[in-house]
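Colleagues,

For the teaching module next term, I've prepared a clean inverse folding example: a structure given as tokens, and then the sequence designed for it. I'd like students to try predicting residues themselves before seeing the answer, so please don't circulate the second half yet.
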């Protein structure tokens, strides 16, 4: 299988996707529209880029139509499933599982029920490659009129007849073609240098009567169809804050819900918000999906709900134990809400205390192995992230090459093991409203406070240049 746009980096992707839409299943987010008379509802193609936030046995539907069992979804055990017919008769389900929450998947579903060969009537592709291994493969009959692409209600982000089946994650470049069964090369191509599958410009495609193209570039009209057809979708429970620049051509870090010892935590808002749980009895911590070994990086975290035992910092690995707080081990460094700093289980005075609604900035300088923290834009301990090797006010850290895994990740913690704080991360796409708009020197990210000169948001384009 070809590489996908996870932590793999392409600086010059050729065609750049500006925006995605962040769906949070806990908020019942979805788009809806009743389509009209199709050009041909025996033939159609769906294409979209998706970055998952939740993996589970629950069904996460990303496109559905009509009544029951007409949908495209991540199904049981994280397979991909395509099914038609209200009686659940026609279904194709992959054997392969799709559990990477750090990567963007490109999914193309291509249907033509006029095909004489049954397996050609319903095909799907992931990252440019056709899926051919299935646990279930019941194809529709010849010349079957599919409920999808008929004159009925269509939803993006939920299963129409079961409102517990919402999609949780990001979507970008949603394209629907009415009247043609297209292959993935209409929507993407393999990068000639890296072999990574990447998107291409789709604006010149023929969309058909019910066709649409959602690029999510208009924050005031997130359901706007830019195909020229005017098949605009109604927005349900989504707002401008759900428009992000985390896309299939510039992938941003989030929290990683797959790390060990964090099953008690509840992740939401595209894995940018984490609640430690009402029954928390552990000291474990979540970390970012992307780690870094060189360069200078800036992040912000919002202390949503303060408790008596919060910490923010960096770690070289996932939480190794339910009894080790962030800062317990040699290659972990944290700023506590008591105003102290901690490393290798040793704490000392550092800066101001912090509480609910405070924003903690983190400047990680891996060119000089220095670490700085700010509170609401003020660098603590008179720190100066631009001071370089002298590290004025800095916390000196071990070089990543000498740690257990060779990388540092952002992390937030709860060091008492009895509290239930809530943190929201801002790697450049905040899940909360900010009062200002600052980006890094490359123009990436949206931060409350200005990143120090020479520090960058944690995304794949910056990684390709500085990481």
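(Answer key — instructors only)
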């Amino acid at each position: 299988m070809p590489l996908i746009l996870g932590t793999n980096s392409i600086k010059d992707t050729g065609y750049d996707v500006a925006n995605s839409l962040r769906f949070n299943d806990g908020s019942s987010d979805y788009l809806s529209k009743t389509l009209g008379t199709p050009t041909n509802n025996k033939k159609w193609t769906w294409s979209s880029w998706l970055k998952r936030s939740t993996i589970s046995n629950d069904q996460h539907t990303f496109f559905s139509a009509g009544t029951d069992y007409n949908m495209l979804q991540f199904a049981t055990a994280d397979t991909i499933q395509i099914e038609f017919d209200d009686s659940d008769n026609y279904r194709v389900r992959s054997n392969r599982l799709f559990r990477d929450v750090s990567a963007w998947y490109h999914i193309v579903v291509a249907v033509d029920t006029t095909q004489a060969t049954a397996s050609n009537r319903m095909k799907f592709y992931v990252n440019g490659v056709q899926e051919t291994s299935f646990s279930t493969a019941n194809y529709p009959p010849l010349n079957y009129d599919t409920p999808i692409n008929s004159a009925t209600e269509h939803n993006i982000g939920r299963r129409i007849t079961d409102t517990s089946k919402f999609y949780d994650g990001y979507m970008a470049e949603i394209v629907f073609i009415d009247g043609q069964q297209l292959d993935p090369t209409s929507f993407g191509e393999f990068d000639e240098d890296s072999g990574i599958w990447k998107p291409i410009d789709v604006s010149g495609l023929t969309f058909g009567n019910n066709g649409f193209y959602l690029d999510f570039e208009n924050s005031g009209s997130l359901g706007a169809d830019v195909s020229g057809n005017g098949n605009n979708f109604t927005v349900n429970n989504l707002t401008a804050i759900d428009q992000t620049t985390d896309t299939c051509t510039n992938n941003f870090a989030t929290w990683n819900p797959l790390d060990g010892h964090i099953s008690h935590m509840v992740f939401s808002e595209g894995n940018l918000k984490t609640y430690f749980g009402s029954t928390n009895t552990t000291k474990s911590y979540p970390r970012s999906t992307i780690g870094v070994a060189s360069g200078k990086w800036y992040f912000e975290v919002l202390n949503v709900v303060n408790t008596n035992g919060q910490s923010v910092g960096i770690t070289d690995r996932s939480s190794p134990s339910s009894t080790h707080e962030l800062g317990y081990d040699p290659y972990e460094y944290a700023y506590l809400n008591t105003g102290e700093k901690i490393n290798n289980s040793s704490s000392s005075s550092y800066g101001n205390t912090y509480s609910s609604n405070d924003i903690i900035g983190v400047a990680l300088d891996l060119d000089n192995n220095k670490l700085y923290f700010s509170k609401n834009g003020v660098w603590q301990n008179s720190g100066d992230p631009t001071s370089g090797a002298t590290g004025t006010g800095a916390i000196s850290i071990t070089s990543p090459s000498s740690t257990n895994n060779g990388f540092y990740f952002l992390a937030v913690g709860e060091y008492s093991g009895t509290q239930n704080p809530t943190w929201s991360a801002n790697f450049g796409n905040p899940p909360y409203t900010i009062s200002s708009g600052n980006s890094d020197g490359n123009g990436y990210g949206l931060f409350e406070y200005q990143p120090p000169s020479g520090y960058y948001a944690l995304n794949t384009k910056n990684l390709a240049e500085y990481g």
